[in-house]
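Write out the 3D structure for:
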Amino acid sequence: MKEAEPSWKHYLTDYNEGLGLVYERFVLNDFLLALRAKHSIQTVLEAPLFGMAGVSGINSVALAQAGCEVTLVDDNAERAAGVRRIWDELGLDAAVLEVEPADWGNLPFDDDSFDLAWDWAALWYLPDAGALLRELARTSRHLVFVAMPNRRQVGYFLRKYVLDRDFFQAVDERWVDMGRIRRELEDVGLRIVEQGVLDVPPWPDTVMPAGEVLKRLGLRSKKLEQQFTGDSWQWSTMAYYLGQQPELYERVMRYAWLDRARLPWRLKALWAHHRYLLAGKK
């Protein structure tokens, strides 16, 4: 049987990611831009660049647009080349470097090279995520930000036990344990500055298009398929970044009432798609 093509290859040319991913990016953008303003961040390392589904390598675009100097790291030459082309298309500069898959514990940067070193949801793909966390701590002069899928919310269980069971055989699920990540960061001398949740829309986190979810649940109907496919169901962060859909942010963020609600984060965690830690150098 021919092995399926990785989804990241598809998204290097097709920027239609779906509503959920565009929402996730906009919420993350708001968080990163607030972090930049509060801590005067100028230099940024994102490693690895491939944790989020959809278009690879664009998590730090908002920071670059705000004037930050961005460095991205990947372990796949084809994907890294695609990310360089995407940033050229956006008219933005980013240093996109490659390491071997076994070298995430040996990043090619000096100590204290970046104001912010961060990663979104990639730890469980790595052979040694602890080594990467130690490198983020070493290369940051100020802050380390790490987020992972929230294992407590209903979409996680739906994906794990119903929709996408094979996926969980290919990742190291120990790294959705925020306590484990916290211990790794504290063991190398960082202090936890903040913890919380991000990405709390009104739909569950299935990490796949709505039409595919309905198909896997056996809820097939022509009306539903038409609702979540076709030209009327086009959602692209790249279109927003390129200035083609300037209204997209307002369209999508009308769903952010729970993200923006002044509720304890532990209460939001019952539904939030991601949890995060923000750590600082002592």
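Strands lie at 43-46, 69-74, 95-98, 114-120, 140-149, 190-198, 274-281.
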